[in-house]
Amino acid sequence: MYDFDTRIDRRNTGSVKVDLIAKQGFPEDTIPLWVADMDFAVPPEVEEALKKAAGQRIYGYTLCKDSYFEAVRQWFSRRFGWEIQEEWMIQTPGVVFALAAAVRAFTEKGDGVLLQRPVYFPFSKVVEANERVVVNNPLVYENGSYRIDFDDFERKIVDHNVKLFLLCSPHNPVGRVWSEEELCRMGEICLRHQVFVVADEIHCDFIRPGYRHHTFASLGEAFADHCMICTAPSKTFNLAGLQISNSFIPNSEWREKMEAELERVSCQEAGLFGLAACEAAYRYGEPWLLELLDYLEGNLAYIRSFLKEKLPKMKLVEPEGTYMIWLDVSEYGYTAEQLHARLRTKARLWLNEGSMFGPEGAAYLRVNIASPRSVICEAMERLLQF
Asked: CB–CB of 51/204 below 8 Å?
């Protein structure tokens, strides 16, 4: 029903993904598969909602309507069995903004903030930029998958005065979808040591068959009472440019701290177009998403087969979620600089080098597979020049 095959020309639209190619010194015909930005048209209902909003002709300060919350509530109830309340919801221009605000709201300068590298690089940035201390509980890679070292997790909390844990769930870039057991075990350790949990769940709608996303706050009242859940329609429906995210803090005392921080930076109202797009996406976009998930499975199957047959030294870390894949290229023996140079000049591909997610990712590449199949096929052929 939906067309995910047509290539949409995004040049000269202000696209970060495409229009930075020349500015970053890449060849003009480079294929960009780096930033988590899909190359698919949004659901038609979202486009119509934006046209309707534009038709108002007056774009003043905009209220978040009751229908908006109801669309959000139904989405998380239907897809994850998580029942949210309206007073829990806090809106920010994006999840990274929410993470930075949370670091300032819930910790003091010099406090330890725990994360699990290799991890989405803004996690470290929002900690360091706000003069807190990054405490790393590195994920352990063995037998083709990643696991948590729970002994190290607790030891780091105790030894480094950790006050806050930034949880990436599903995990970007390694693609793990944490099990209920893993989430509960982390949560119990955090409760034991009074560590507040901020869970970035922005990729929660991209879960592969056989896996299930568990919203951290849904796993028990005690967990809900000591966490903030960060979500957005931006990854699911390709709405990042509309600057809208929804975070949820069930505990009123913690929520007041976050609200006070947002007031300090005068982050008060969401924009008209972000509100309109989010409501339409959550209300009408599920059929589009389900077809998209099937399409992405096809892209993944093609990549898996291609690597096995033609690039056996390049190992796919089998993803459980997200539309980013994590490739182990350690057998090539290249340094990060050599990886960058070969991708740029030989393959003419713009991928994320794993080192940007922490030193643990130095021998890996992150690839965005949310593009038309023909683009993915061309990119894989170019990797033969790698």
From this structure: no
Closest-CA residue to 197 (of 185, 206, 181, 179): 185
Distance CA 272, CA 110 (A): 38
Q: What is the pTM of this model?
A: 0.97
Q: Dump pLDDT digits (tens) for 63-74.
A: 999 999 999 999
Q: Which residues contact 338 (CB under 8 A, 6 or more apart)?
A: none
What's residue 158's pLDDT?
98
pLDDT at position 337? 85
Q: Are 48 and 280 in contact (CB under 8 A)?
A: yes
Q: Which tokens belong to 259?
A: 């609200």
Give 312-344 pLDDT, tens digit per residue.
999 999 999 999 999 999 999 988 888 889 999
Q: What values do phi and psi take at 101, rounded to 5?
A: -65, -40
Greatest CA separation found in the chain? 58
CB 39, CB 368: distance < 8 Å: no
Strands 227-231 and 245-248: antiparallel
Residues of the chain with pLDDT under 50: none
Regarding beta strands 112-115 and 133-136, do their DSSP bridges make them parallel or antiparallel, or are they unpaired? parallel
Q: Say what the pLDDT of residue 34 is.
A: 98
Q: Which of 321, 318, 278, 322 is nearest to 301 (CA)?
A: 318
Helix, strand or coil, per DSSP, at residue 122: helix
Which domains does the chain possess?
Answer: 16-43+286-383 (3.90.1150.10), 59-284 (3.40.640.10)
C-alpha 172/C-alpha 132 separation (Å) is: 22
Report d(CA 351, CA 342) in Å as an integer. 11
Per-residue DSSP letters for 32-54? E--SS---SPPPHHHHHHHHHHH
Distance CA 95, CA 250 (A): 17
Q: Which residues share a beta bridge with 32?
A: 350
Output DSSP code: residue 118.
Answer: S
